[in-house]
Amino acid sequence: MTARTRRRLTVCLALCVVALPAEALLLPVALTPDPTEAAFEWAAARTPDDLEAAAAEIDAYPVTYRRAIMAQLDPAARSTVWRSRFQAYLVDHPELNRTQRAILEEALELAGPETFQPPLRPDVQARLRQVFGEAQLHLPGTAAQELFVNLGPEHPGQANALPLRQQLADRIRGWRAASATSAPCNCNMDIDTCTVWPEPEWLECSEQFTCDMDLTWPMCGPLWSWACVGWCRVLIWPELY
After folding, report:
1. Which residue of 6, 54, 112, 218 has the lowest C-beta tally within 10 Å?
2. Which residues touch 200 (CB under 8 Å, ≥6 apart)?
3. Mean pLDDT in the chain?
């Protein structure tokens, strides 16, 4: 999405805010100002049928909502969703070479239900670490990030599946000042996914900052299966790079 498109969407959202009753938007924001908490509350309020439908188009949601939706599923359903992403990539990219296909086929095998119910067995963790490292080396572009870390593109590849009111409320949450309380941890020092970005020199996982550790799935790292104990630290701002 270009900067110009983002500006246009912001204007459209602002007009929608004017058209809707203020209390319809501001009350949910006041009750749940944290965007991540709001996403998990939204997912927890869905019916089983709603969750099944959302899981079937998981990449139509922002990444935070993907995590929230997946958190509501049982390990078998989580496995089905993630395996479908690997399988779809294989089908959509017949040009992959033998090495690349072997990486994804092993990822398919590793993405079983037991992987989504911590703690990981040491042998599974070791294999997943190796496969993820190979994916970073051999898969093109941002494929490793999308397949192993984001469960799809960083931004929804189609129209955002969230209800408009939820999108508007999240936009307002994004305008609010940062909370004074510590933020949740978002990385693991042992398998640093902060570096899975177009310019990996910008960020690194650090334990020098105070953050709230996350030891329940979804966590951090590939397939969200490593404990979140660190914070992605900015090494250099992109515009100064």
Report:
1. 6
2. none
3. 83
